[in-house]
Write a structure and sequence with these properties.
about 500 residues, Aldehyde Dehydrogenase, Chain A, domain 1, Aldehyde Dehydrogenase, Chain A, domain 2, six-stranded mixed sheet, 22 strands, about 20% strand, globular, binds nicotinamide-adenine-dinucleotide
Amino acid sequence: MTANTAIPIAPVEHFINGQYRSSECERFDDLNPATNEPITSVPSGTAADIDAAVRAARDAFDHGPWPRMSAKERGALLHRLGDLIAARANDLAELETLDTGVPISQTRGALIPRAAENFHFFADLAPRLQGELYPVEGEFLNYTTRYPVGVAGLITPWNAPFMLETWKIAPCLAAGNTAVLKPAEWSPLTANALGALAAEAGFPPGVFNVVQGLGETAGAALVAHPGVQLISFTGETSTGREIMRNGATTLKRLSMELGGKSPVIVFPDADLDRALDAVVFGVYSLNGERCTASSRLLLHRDIYDSFAQELSERVRRIRVGDPFDPRTEVGPLIHPEHAARVRQALSRGIAEGAKLAVGGEMLAGPGNFIEPTLFLDATNQMHIAQQEIFGPVLTVIPFSDEAEAIRMANDVRYGLAAYVWTGNIARGHRIASSLESGMVWVNSQNVRDLRTPFGGAKESGIGREGGEHSFHFYCETRTVHIALGEHRIPRFGVET
Ligand code: NAD
C-alpha cells in the first residue's frame, strides 16, 4: 500500500495563543495506518502545556474582544474559517486519509465538507438564538438571555477527527467561549492544520488553542484544570466515566458523546434493496470505526435466508485497499493496537458459535487491513452483539415478531442510534417510540440535519449537541425578572 509520502506534512506542535509552540515535552510517532510507518512525530503535551493553553484561553475570555463581540461579528470569522476549510478541502482530506486510513472518497466526499459546514451552520445560528419570555400579566416580565460560559476543553476521538472537532469548536466559539482542543493521539494532523487556518481567518490570539498529546496526561490535565468550565468529550464510554470522575472536583459542566452498538431492524415489508444498501453502508463506511454504525442487524425470519445471502455477497465484494484509491470502500484500521482489539472480538465471535459467513482475517502485508466481516446466526447475548467492536464487523440476529425485535434492540447497555426498515409507517413510528435510543432513523441511512439534537441514551452519552442544543451546553442561561408594578414586598423589621 502506498505511504503517500508526497503529502506535505507541517511539523506537529501545540497551537497556543495564536502561535505554534514547540514544547520541551517528549514526542511520539504518528503512524500511517496503511503501512504502520511513522508519518511524523507529535508532542506529548504535559500539564504545563495545558496550563499555558488554558491561561491563553482564559486571558482571551476575560480581557480579549471575543466574548464581547456580537454573535454576528463572531459569525463573520467563523464563516471565514469555513471558507478556508472549503478552499483547502482537498489537502485536508488527504491529510485525514493519510492519518486515519479512512478512504479518500469518504474524507473528500463527506467528512471535510461537513467540517466547513459546521462553521457556516453555527455562525448563522448563533445570532438567531431566541430567549424565552414568561410574562406575568401586569406584574412581571421574565425573560432569558444566554451568555458564554468561559473556557471549554474539547476532547475528541480519532475516527472522524476533523468533523468531530469542528462539531464542537464551531458552536463553542460561536457562543463566545474560548477553547482548548485536545485531539486524539492517533490522529493529530488535521487538528494541527486547523491552528494555522484559524490564525489566517483572523481569530484573536487565545480564542482557539490546541494541545496535542495523550489522554491520560494532556487530556486528564485539561479535565482537572480549575480554569476550564466545560468539557465536551467524544470517545469511549469507559473514558467518559473517568472524565466524569476527574471533572467532579472542579465541578465541570460535561457533555458526553460515547460508544454505541446500534441495531438496524429489517422487516419483510421494507424496500429490501434500499435496506440492503443502508445496512452495508451503515456499518462498513468509515472502516466500521463509526459511533453510529449499524453493527447489529436484526433480521426477520421470513426474509432471513435470502437477505443474508445477498448481504454476504455484497460484503464479499467490498473493495478493501489503499485508502488513497478513489474506488476503495474500506481502508486500514487506525492503529495496530486497535486492530488487535478488533481481531480479539472476531475470535470471540467464532468461539461463541456465531457463523463466520465472510471475512474474519487480517490481510497479509503492512498496515492494519482487515477483511470486512459478517457473522450470521448470532444471538443477542453474544459478545459480538453486545460490545462495540468499532471495526468493519456486522453481527446478524434473526427475530420472529415486532415485540422480539424491540426487546433485543433495547437489550444492550448502549443507546446511541437505531435504524428501522419497514413499509408499514405505523409500525415505523411504533418501533421508533419504543427504542431506548437517542436517535432513530426510519427507512433511512444516517443522514444528519445539523439542527437536530445528536446524542445517546443509556451508556452512549449524556446531553445533546446539535442545533440549539449545542448552545444549551455552551451557554449559561440568565433569567431576568422585571417588576412592572408595585408587587407586595413583605416588610421585616418595621414593628416597634
Ligand atoms: P477514547 O475514549 O480512547 O479517546 C477519546 C479521547 O479521549 C482522546 O483524545 C484521548 O486522548 C482522550 N482521553 C483518553 N483518556 C483520557 C482521560 N483519562 N482524560 C481525558 N482525556 C482522555 O476513544 P477513541 O478510541 O479515540 O474513539 C473511539 C470511541 O469514540 C468509540 O467508543 C466511539 O463509539 C466513540 N465515538 C462516539 C461518538 C459519539 O458522538 N457518540 C462519535 C465518535 C466516536
